[in-house]
Amino acid sequence: MLKIRQPTTQTAPRASRRGFLTGAAAAAGAIVIGFRLDLGKARAAGADLAAVKAQPNAFVRIGADDTVTVIIKHLDMGQGNTTGLATILADELDADWATVRTEFAPADAALYNNLLMGPIQGTGGSTAVANSWMQLRKAGAAAREMLVAAAAFAWKVPVAEITVENGVVRHAGSNRQARFGELAASAASLPVPQEPRLKDPSQWRLIGQRVPRLDSKMKTDGSAVYALDTRRPGQVTAVVAHPPRFGATVKGFDDAASRKVAGVLDVVAIPTGVAVIARDTWAAMKGREALKVTWDESAAESRSSDAILAEYRETAKRPGIVASERGDPAAGIKNAAQVLEAEFSFPYLAHAAMEPLNATIERATDGTYDIFAGLQFQTIEQATAAAILGVTPDKVRLHTQWAGGSFGRRATPSADYIAEAATILKAWGAKAPVHLVWTREDDMTGGYYRPTVYHKIRAGLDAKGAVTGWQHVMVGKSIMIGSPFEAMLVKNGVDGTTVEGASDTPYALPAYRFEVHNAREGVPVLWWRSVGHTHTAHAMEVMIDELAHAAKVDPVAYRLSLLANAPRLAGVLKLAAEKANWGSDAQTGNEKGKGLGVAVHESFGSYVAMVADVTAGTGSIKVNRIVAAVDVGIAVNPDIVRAQVEGAVGFALSSVLRNRVTLKDGVVQETNFDAYEPTRMSEMPVVEVHIVPSQAAPTGIGEPGVPVLAPAISNAVFAATGQRLRALPLDLASLKGV
Question: What molecular functions are annotated in GO for this chain (predicted)?
Fold first, then answer.
């Protein structure tokens, strides 16, 4: 049997814990010295990716029964990367797709490093396929050459005379053949080719084709094991009473009533709250309901959302940190024929994944530990748990499970919920495996959020409608400032995840200045699907649309005039406009209440344009159709690319139409899906996805479909009604009859 290599060990410094477990996270963060800021620029790292060595035994296992198991180093939270990654290796291996299986890799950054993040094993920034492309091609090709060499040796024939197809190795001259499983054991003993010959794209049988997803059946029949399904012998369940306001701490608690609840085993204080441990989830929840906690809120965030946004507006009036600048925009605006001003506000948003956070942790008899969860930053999670438990990281084994969504929530620099599970186990003396469960309400009210953000833009046009100057000010809380990654990822006070998509705009604006203010409120923030692009794309694309209309130029033509140096963006824009029949009556607003709007944006190295077809009237918007064009380089599995864009529309639509997380005196008001309602099937528009043919290295698509939806819809509403709705979610109540 051709086997996966046993994981190597690594160590991390220990640290104390405080607040949101930042001490332990700092221990983990010390490992991540090479974490790349610009996760999306996968194509810029092409040379680095091409230099990776072939390690077939780390990424593929071939059994005597001919099964080909591809080891997946990334978390699959529904985006289908297990299928995409397996496709890459299986094609170079020439495997029979019917025999291909997948298995999540153990924690081992030496083998399973995300090549676009530095020395860390993790999933994020739409990098899974991009960073694995050459690595898995080489691993598959190397394994193929090893199988061929084993056959050539056994049959005493030249290697060049052997062919491989669909899991079978053949020698036509002697009419001999063998299945992979028959050769796996002998092949495993051979040297690993470090520079195997890769296929020419014309030889691909799986890459670029629609192959069935490997997880569809198991997720349909219920056999897929999610983290929430984990059941270890003797396991107990823990839920935590978290403070109602961010920054509050436990002053004291009365657990007498909790301990009387049937099934409750213990109540323990931890730095993030009070944990109730019980025989099952229901008992733990009832025990928490009976718990009486007194909170110290002297350092807690106690403002409401409106007050925070009002402070942002005042802050924007002062000079900020210059993130990017070219030309003299002040002079350009002063001498402009017309000047436009606009402001855009964005609320806090919850990740709201279908599977709430949870993790199971147990101590083995030899003093080692096992963690079962939807693990997204394995290196950080392993090191953080180890620091809390007082062992080296090699003593903590991670078992990555299927995750029911994440959208960024499971990838925290502090490994917060993993750290919480480890803390509970330690506080309870590791008497049994502990399954930490966050309820939906816990997840909605006590987690991390997409930052609330405010943009203010002032732009000038000359008599011909050309931009003479653009001044842009943004206020929002940085995700990285105050985290273990601040020293590595924040440069001169600028967090790239805050300003991406605006400070680096591809539009050829001759005079441009982007300033940022880093807010300091007490609400914990985190990347949310497409991170900074969630707000920068909207502000940029709606403002560009306003300039086009002010200049009396078609919005598509206006954008193209500014994208001469961005051919791939121009390409998707042209394709989306063509497929949407841009220029029709709906686009010009001749059909009452209907309109087309367009937006185009690059994020994570991928290019996406969307045209939205909407019907708008008094207090209502109906999104009828979305036409999308995407350029992701080589589309490894076009069906998954389309599915991810369709999913991005469904995910983002509710945030365009209604979703927001609001604080009242510091307390989150939206506690479940009744108040934070996901997109309904009845609301879903028809979504058409057109993929630009390309031979460029593949990039990602998990996130890039999100940023363009809101501005496309907003611009379509203007086309339909003549009214601009700039803030998100769109203020439907302000729409007047047309």
Answer: oxidoreductase activity
Task: Respond yes or no on whether the N-terminal peptide bond of residue 638 is cis (omega within 30° of 0).
Answer: no
pLDDT given for residue 123 in this prediction: 97
Query: Judging by DSSP bridges, how do beta strands 338-346 and 453-461 pair with one another?
Result: antiparallel
Q: Is the domain covering 48-221 a CATH 3.90.850.10 domain?
A: no
Instruction: Judge contact between 383 and 12, C-beta under 8 A.
Output: yes
pLDDT of residue 240 exceeding 90, the answer is yes
CA dihedral 178, 179, 184, 187 (to 10 degrees): 40
State residue 48's pLDDT score. 61
The string of pLDDT tens digits covering residues 402-455 is 999 999 999 999 999 999 999 999 999 999 999 999 999 999 998 899 999 999
| Pairing verdict, β 176-179 and 236-241 | unpaired
CB distance 599 to 711 below 8 Å: yes
For residue range 199-225, list pLDDT tens digits in order.
Answer: 999 999 999 999 999 999 999 999 999
CA angle (287 as vertex; 283, 289 as ends), nearest 5: 120
What is residue 587's predicted lDDT score, i.e. its pLDDT? 54
Q: Residue 682 has what DSSP assignment?
A: G
CB 250 within 8 A of CB 293: yes
The residues of the chain that CATH labels 3.30.365.10 are 48-221, 227-298+357-437, 305-347+449-734
Please state, in angstroms and rounded to a whole number, the distance separating the CA atoms of residues 122 and 113.
7
Roughly what angle, to the nearest 10 degrees, separates helices 709-721 and 533-550? 30
State how far the Cα of 354 lies from the Cα of 614, in Å rounded to an integer. Answer: 28
φ, ψ of residue 93 in degrees (nearest 5): -80, -20
C-beta separation of 361 from 332 below 8 A: no
Other Cβ atoms less than 10 A from the Cβ of 298: the count is 10
Here the tokens at position 143 are 């394994």
Mean pLDDT, the chain, whole residue set: 92
The percent of residues above 90 in pLDDT, for the chain, comes to 89
* Token representation of residue 653: 């639509």
What are φ and ψ of residue 45, in 5° steps? -100, 15
Within a 13 Å sphere around the CA of 260, how many CA atoms are in the beta-carbon half? 7
Q: Are 629 and 712 in contact (CB under 8 A)?
A: no
Confidence label for 83 from pLDDT (cuts 50, 70 and 90): very high
Phi, psi of 49 (to 5 degrees): -70, -35
Please give the structure tokens belonging to residue 97. Answer: 């797709």
CA distance 642 to 322: 38
d(CA 648, CA 671): 23
Specify burial of residue 552 (Cβ count, 10 A radius: 0-12, 13-18, 19+).
Answer: exposed
Q: What would the mean pLDDT of 324-332 be, rounded to a whole number?
A: 98
Burial of 696 (0-12, 13-18, 19+ CB in 10 A): middle
Displacement of CA 142 from its chain's centroid (Å): 31
Q: Is the pLDDT of residue 297 over 80?
A: yes
C-alpha separations of 541 from 251, 386, 624 in Å:
48, 45, 20
Give the C-alpha distances (Å, rounded to integers) separating 279 from 31, 268, 419. Answer: 37, 15, 21
CB 407 within 8 A of CB 434: no
CATH fold of the domain at 227-298+357-437? Aldehyde Oxidoreductase; domain 4 (3.30.365)
Domain 305-347+449-734 top-level CATH class: alpha beta
Give me the mean pLDDT over the 132-158 stretch. 97
**Helix, strand and coil percent figures for the chain, each rounded to 5:** 35, 25, 45
Q: What is the pLDDT of residues 552-568, one digit of tens each?
A: 999 999 999 999 999 99
Neighbours of 588 (CB within 10 A): 13
pTM flag (> 0.90): yes
